[in-house]
Amino acid sequence: MADFVGAVDQGTTSTRFMVFDHDGREVGRHQLEHEQVLPRAGWVEHNPLEIWERTQTVIGTALTRLGLGASDLDSLGITNQRETTVVWDRRTGRPYHNAIVWQDTRTDRIARALEESGAGEVVRRKAGIPPAAYFSAGKVQWVLENVEGVREAAEQGHAVFGTTDTWLLWNLTGGTRGGVHVTDVTNASRTMLMDLTTLEWDEELLSLFGIPRPMLPEIRPSSDPAFYGLTEPRGPLGGEVPLAGDLGDQHAATVGQVCFSPGEAKNTYGTGSFMLLNTGADIVRSRAGLLTTVAYQLGGEPPAYALEGSVAVTGSAVQWLRDQLGIISGAAEVEQLAAQVPDTGGLYFVPAFSGLFAPYWRPDARGAIVGMSRYNTNAHLARATLEAICYQTRDVAEAMERDSGVRLEVLRVDGGVTANSLCMQLQADILGVPVSRPEVAETTALGAAYAAGLATGFWKDTEELRSQWHEDRRWEPGWSARQREDGYAGWQRAVERTLGWVDVE
Fold it and tell me: Which residues contact 83 (CB under 8 A, 6 or more apart)?
């Protein structure tokens, strides 16, 4: 029996490959960033061929460093940035256009037209999510309408669509030499095209966006004992390994944080931040600006559902300080800079670079720094950036409580930002509840590995996975109730200043 499980974590800014042992502990990893293509304001793209090249490199490099080969891996799981849309030619393997990233707002007009026609309620009822530029269907429609020859190729069965999990699964299993065209229920639930109750592509939703059915991948469970396929021996693993786990990144983190019971919640801090609350077998329709989504589906079991609050800009706000303003040279420096001051000096930063996601859903919002005086320094801005991450999480947590009636008792956190102790302390202060980080902070990749290993029997069941979860650190709230409420009231005033800054075409 092989001793390890591998996981490809294809994220918004980078791709990594991680290897885990039977205790769920990281054995090794390799990670590479890819280019953020920004053709115009509000447009965000990636090069799918670059992502595939980076994926091959991180797999090969990690295995070489560890002295491992395909025979050492029991199985392979994939987790991915969700909603990001790739349309390619199955005959050549060439994308027709750059991938349109989840942050991209060019399809606002498509979402608005659906609302104006009354079809928005159809999308909400069937897909569980509102019409928004965030999701994949409008991006596919944009490619069909704006890239010459794609619609004709789609109707002939040549042009196919997938989120980045589908793109990588297709390439890992052979690509033009018989690659499988599949996705899982979690990624499918983020397209506006899948019916939440049937877990199948819905013809009425397809017709709303004018998307030919042959473009779409087959929908499979997140953990599939039948496997999606085997890796091609000529690929980066150099042998055949079962591809058995596939989840969108936030769903994978939910599995990695072992949130298997209704009422359990986690928050992942990456490029954006995403809080998911497990609602079990119940499809809870949000009235407070949250999303209803599939949490995961393990094998032949019924799916578990979730409420989700999605925030577009958290970790990428720190990148903005580094790349656009140049006040830090690396993300790790923001904590040191922010710690130079005891507070923000009255400054608030709302990083609505491409509008606001949950619970506001305002594409007309744009970023704003308010409350500035000559007293303020770059240290105050750095601290306000960390507070912005935490206030956006509170916005989501309060909406989640209104929808579910469940009061958050502790917040399980993961992702790169959790390495910033000051930010996590501010999160506890602003929420007023303890914040708990597990020993394995990169639970997105761990969740993909868990899904794959459950499918093959590498791990027996979810109770075995629960036994492997261990807390690394806990932050307790330190602010007074008055300080907490005054700070949040100021944040809400700052958010108001961002609204209506652009006309959404």
Answer: 102, 134, 135, 136, 139, 163, 190, 191
With CA atoms as reference, report the closest residue to 78 among 469, 450, 415. 450
Torsions phi, psi of 173, nearest 5? -100, 15
b/e for 132-160, b at 16 or more Cβ within 10 A?
A: bbbbbbbbbbbbbeeeeebbebbeeebbb
Work out the average pLDDT over 495-502.
93
The confidence score (pLDDT) of residue 431 equals: 95
Pairing of strands 182-184, 218-220: parallel
φ/ψ of residue 449, rounded to 5? -65, -45
Four-residue CA torsion sign, 347, 353, 359, 361: positive
Q: How many helices (H) and strands (E) does the chain have?
A: 16, 23
408-443 CB burial, b ≥16 within 10 A, e <16: beebbbbbbbbebebbbbbbbbbbbbbbbbbebbbb
pLDDT digits (tens, 9 = 90+) for 344-374: 999 999 999 988 988 998 888 999 999 999 9
List, in sequence order, every residue forming a beta bridge with 298; answer none if it has no partner. Answer: 223
| 495 neighbors 487 (Cβ within 8 angstroms) | no
Beta strand extents in 367-428 (DSSP E only): 368-370, 411-414
Tokens of 338: 């922010």
Is the Cβ–Cβ distance between 391 and 432 less than 8 Å? no
Q: Tell me the average pLDDT across 40-60.
A: 95
Note the Cα 92 to chain centre separation in Å: 29
CA 465 to chain centre: 22
The DSSP bridge pattern shows strands 411-414 and 435-438 to be parallel
What is the residue-averaged pLDDT of the chain?
Answer: 94
Q: How far apart are CA 443 and CA 462, in angstroms?
A: 15
